[in-house]
Specification:
This protein is an alpha+beta fold. The chain folds into four domains: 33 residues, no CATH class; 53 residues, 2-Layer Sandwich (Phosphorylase Kinase, domain 1); 29 residues, no CATH class; 52 residues, no CATH class. Helices cover 31% and strands 22% of the residues. It is built from seven helices and nine strands; from the N terminus they run αααβββααββαβββαβ. The chain has a three-stranded antiparallel sheet with strand order 1-2-3. It has a two-stranded antiparallel sheet with strand order 4-5. The protein has a two-stranded antiparallel sheet with strand order 6-7.
Length: 189
């Protein structure tokens, strides 16, 4: 690389000798950045979604290439967020693509020091059996004065911030129908 090539590649030189004296366009662009393409340009498809983190409901565009999420960004057509996302929403791609994301059911038996993988059907049966048993053991039909209670203190519900409003609504209805009275969402705590 000669001196002339180096000087012509220098942004200040391009700014002073070119058509971009303020350095806001081509003068500020390096050869490498001129060759870059947006991750959204090569996507096979784009799906509209809603950010899962809070109750605001910011719109998202989810770009997919070869069946994998390649980029998530704010949806400019969303009347709520108009293309903007908070830091958590902007990082939501990591929620679905992280190599640390758990994709199997993990279980640690009582007094064990090791985790084991369970198939989903086995785990769901274990959870259902425990919920039914806890409900039956702690069910309260009425108080001491005979007033109806129809509740259980055997379990409670705690929703997560990565669930959307609809999921949290359905979880609230499910736990209420089972008689639980301690139902909360992590986003409100």
């Amino acid at each position: 690389m000669g001196l002339r090539t180096w000087i012509e590649g220098w942004p200040v030189y391009r700014q002073l000798t070119g058509t971009d004296p303020l350095g806001r366009g081509a003068a500020a662009m390096s050869r490498r950045s001129a060759e870059l393409t947006p991750r959204t340009e090569t996507a096979d498809s784009m799906a509209r979604s809603v950010c899962p983190y809070c109750a605001v409901g910011c719109g998202q565009r989810v770009y997919v290439k070869d069946g994998r999420v390649t980029q998530i960004e704010g949806d400019p057509d969303s009347p709520i967020s108009r293309g903007r996302l908070c830091p958590k929403g902007a990082a939501s791609k990591n929620l679905v693509t992280s190599k640390f994301r758990q994709t199997t059911v993990r279980y640690r038996r009582p007094y064990s020091t090791e985790w084991e993988d369970l198939d989903l059907d086995t785990a769901m049966d274990m959870i259902a059996d425990r919920v039914i048993a806890a409900r039956a053991d702690r069910w309260e039909d009425a108080d001491d004065e005979g007033r109806p209670l129809n509740r259980t203190l055997g379990f409670s519900g705690l929703g997560g911030a990565t669930l959307d409003n609809e999921e949290n609504y359905l979880i609230k209805k499910l736990f209420t129908a089972m008689g639980a009275i301690q139902i909360e969402n992590q986003a409100r705590i």
